[in-house]
Recover the amino acids of this structure.
């Protein structure tokens, strides 16, 4: 029987002990040892648990040999009566005596000495509505705890529960401060990325390094399909459905240790960030990840803006260079041609001089044609009026008869229009130089997946497998299509002409005023 004085002394000592540390494991172990010494009980142990089936042995003191053997393995695996009652919600107050399943099994299978302990008292560790685990105490031959003992044990359990809550709040606050300090470093590195690939790789690498996540993956939206762009850590199996659903719903989806967060900018669906932790995802993890996805999305958009700006600057520089060539070099060549023709009239009685002047005139006119072609390559005349207009004018410039079958495709991006123009231009150049035919057919159509271009001639043809036929022009044409995620195929045979097939995919479909429009790269 505890006296009132002993109870107060015990509670005071326990309170002082709990206030001396913020280390839960050290605190639990110290409190348990003092509690047993003050109450003259033999053994005790504390289980902490946050969900059914998962628990840890947070502290123990003077366990009987049957429970302490093999590095306390009997205490760290399997279930027991007290935990089952706790998980089932049946353990709300101190329970006087519970037979111990672990001790029963030790006796039944003769696996060790129980040292006379067969029963224990079980007290839930709580703080308000929060529950943390159970405190168990026992002594040899003790099969009953009176009300005073249970009241004292309950008071101690409340103190322990309150200390656990305080410590976890303190740890969470410290962890949050630490997480957001690291967040500044991660964000700083994200904004240093020069392109989309390095941005996504940096995000995955730094997240895993800074926050010790098990795996981090980034996916991007490529034509409505999610493509893995970077992965750090172990492969994530069976996560495809979660990632797809998060992208479809544009919502965060959390499943225990895995979370998927959509990457969006101004309702544009960029992709998904997928993270798996070694333990259950916490609120502070979500806060950090949501901040990271916001910065990744904004940085992604910033890089896109810079790339478009670079394209515009390059386009403007080409226009300037084309104007300069037209206004200076081309005009001088024209003047040289006129001068050579006038000089021929003067030197009509000098045959050798006439021949030299004729050659000079021919060279200047040929140089003018080449210069005009260079200007066309830099700045296609009529492109501002549409791709078809520019192609027709270039065909006239080359002097070949091209039969056009071109659909009206109003939403071609600048990059796609530029690529189709360059590929068509090089195709017509090859027809004019190599095909031995002044006639060609060109067809441009759109489909559900992208734009298709077909260029055909009935000229000499060639063997695409011959090394001499793998020209820089054909290589450049293929690279232009591939840069936009497309393909270019050349079908040719000697004496049977050549056909070039080009496909450039759409980037996305979006709703606009109730109508769906497809926009190319």
């Amino acid at each position: 029987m505890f006296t009132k004085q002993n109870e107060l002394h015990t509670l005071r000592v326990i309170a002082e002990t709990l206030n001396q540390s913020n280390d839960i494991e050290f605190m639990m172990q110290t409190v348990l040892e003092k509690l047993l010494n003050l109450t003259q009980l033999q053994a005790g142990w504390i289980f902490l648990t946050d969900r059914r089936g998962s628990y840890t042995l947070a502290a123990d003191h003077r366990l009987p040999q049957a429970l302490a053997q093999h590095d306390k393995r009997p205490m760290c695996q399997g279930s027991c009566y007290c935990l089952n009652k706790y998980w089932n919600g049946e353990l709300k107050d101190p329970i006087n005596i519970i037979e111990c399943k672990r001790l029963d099994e030790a006796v039944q299978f003769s696996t060790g000495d129980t040292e006379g302990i067969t029963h224990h008292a079980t007290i839930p560790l709580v703080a308000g509505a929060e529950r943390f685990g159970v405190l168990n105490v026992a002594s040899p031959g003790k099969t009953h705890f009176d009300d005073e003992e249970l009241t004292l044990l309950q008071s101690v359990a409340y103190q322990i529960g309150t200390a656990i809550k305080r410590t976890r709040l303190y740890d969470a606050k410290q962890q949050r401060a630490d997480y957001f300090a690291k967040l500044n470093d991660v964000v700083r590195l994200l904004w240093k990325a020069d392109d989309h690939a390095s941005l996504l790789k940096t995000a995955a690498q730094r997240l895993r390094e800074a926050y010790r996540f098990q795996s981090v993956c980034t996916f991007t939206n490529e034509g409505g399909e999610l493509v893995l762009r970077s992965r750090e850590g172990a492969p994530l199996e069976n996560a495809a459905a979660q990632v797809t659903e998060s992208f479809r719903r544009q919502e965060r989806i959390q499943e225990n240790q895995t979370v998927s967060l959509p990457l969006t900018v101004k309702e544009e669906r960029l992709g998904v960030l997928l993270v798996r932790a070694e333990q259950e995802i916490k609120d502070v993890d979500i806060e950090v990840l949501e901040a990271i996805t916001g910065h990744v999305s904004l940085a992604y958009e910033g890089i896109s803006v810079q790339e478009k700006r670079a394209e515009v600057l390059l386009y403007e520089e080409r226009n300037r260079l084309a104007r300069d060539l037209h206004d200076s070099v081309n005009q001088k060549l024209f003047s040289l041609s006129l001068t050579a023709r006038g000089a021929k009239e003067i030197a009509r009685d000098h045959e050798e001089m006439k021949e030299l002047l004729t050659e000079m005139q021919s060279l200047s006119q040929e140089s003018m044609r080449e210069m005009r072609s260079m200007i066309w390559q830099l700045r296609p005349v009529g492109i501002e009026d549409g791709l078809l207009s520019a192609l027709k004018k270039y065909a006239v410039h080359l002097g070949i008869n091209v039969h056009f079958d071109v659909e009206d495709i109003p939403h071609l991006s600048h990059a796609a229009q530029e690529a189709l123009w360059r590929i068509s231009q090089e195709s017509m150049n090859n027809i004019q130089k190599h095909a031995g035919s002044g006639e060609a057919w060109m067809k441009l159509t759109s489909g559900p997946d992208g734009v298709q271009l077909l260029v055909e001639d009935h000229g000499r043809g060639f063997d695409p497998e011959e090394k001499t036929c793998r020209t820089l022009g054909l290589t450049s044409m293929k690279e232009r299509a591939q840069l936009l995620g497309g393909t270019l195929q050349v079908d040719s045979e000697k004496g049977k002409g050549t056909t070039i097939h080009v496909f450039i995919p759409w980037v996305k479909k979006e709703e606009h005023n109730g109508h769906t429009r497809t926009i190319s790269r």
